[in-house]
Structure formats: structure tokens, C-alpha cells
Amino acid sequence: MTHDNQAESARSKARIVEAAIAEFATQGYRKANTNRIVREAGVSKGLLFHYFGSKKELYLYLYDYAMRLMVDEAFAGFDWNEKDIFKRWRAGAEIKFDMMRRYGMLFEFILDAYTRADEEVREEIGASTASWIATAWKRLRENPDLSLFREGVDAEKAMDIIYWTIDGYSRSRMRPPRPLAYYKENYDALIEGLDGYLDTLRRLLYK
Can you give the CATH number for the domain in which 5 is found? Predict the structure, then answer.
């Protein structure tokens, strides 16, 4: 394949990705139509299936693509010099909510897949989500300042408790499923609510 052909192939694939994210975000998995995707992308249906194999494979590719983009951007802007685990994880949660506000269609797609996954893709989406969350939280708990914890507190167990609190809070705010507009409109309240839980844990676990 020549350089020009490779470049055109990359552009075609990018158009498919953009069109497919918009289609799945607005229609959900079951109602999404590959004819609309290829029409919007300006490619043939044969090319779509050449790149992605099937509608299901396209959907799962897009979810992994979207999650990777979100995690990579979040970590790129993170202050890894911060050793206070509460401040670090609170910053991570704030970045997450802020990205919900800034990324329109992409985060709408993630929210739809995460909260309303169709039965045909639910198992794969669940496994992918668990893997990405585990990767992110493992990174966020690297090299904390353990001297901040009270004497006698098991720091590893304490960090598990903090993680479960943040994860549980996030999950509770995503049930029942809500549109992205909800998170944009209630951003300050969501962060304030999380702070209440973290402040309580800080007083219990820190010196």
C-alpha cells in the first residue's frame, strides 16, 4: 500500500469512527444503523466491515477507543507529584466529571454503553469497563504518602475503602441512567457531594 493509500485509509477509518460514535450515542446499540453510519462517513458498507468485521465488533472497538482516549488524557494532565491519596483521587474524580462536561458525543456514547448496554454486548462492555477502571485506580494509588495515615491504620485497606467510596458514589450517580446534560448541569453539586464523603473518611483515617 502506498503512502497516499495509507493516508486515505486512515482518513476513512477516522470518518467511520466519528460517524459511528454519533450514531451509537444517539440511537443506542440496538437501533444504530450501519447504513446511516456509512452514509455519514462517506464510505461503502463493505469498507466498514472490512475494517471492523461486524456491527458488534465496531461497537466494542469504539468503546475501547473511547475509554483509552479518556484515560490517556486524564493521566496526561494529572499531577503525579501529589502524594496525598485523598487529594490525588479527588482530583481524579474532578477530572472525570470535567471530561463529562467537555466531551459531548464521545462521553454520551460511553454513558450509554456503560449504563444501558444492550444484552448482546453487555458482558463484553462490563469486562472492558472493569479492566479500564482497575488500570486507572491501580495507577492512582501508586507511591502515596503513607505517613499521613493514623497509627494503626492499615494503609492498603484504607485505600481500598477510599476507592470503594469513590467508585460507589460514581455508580450511584449513574443510576438510573441519565443524559450527559445532567452531569453538565449538576457538576458542582456532584463534586460537593463527593467531597462530603472524602472529608469524612479523611477525618477517620488521617492524623
Answer: 1.10.10.60
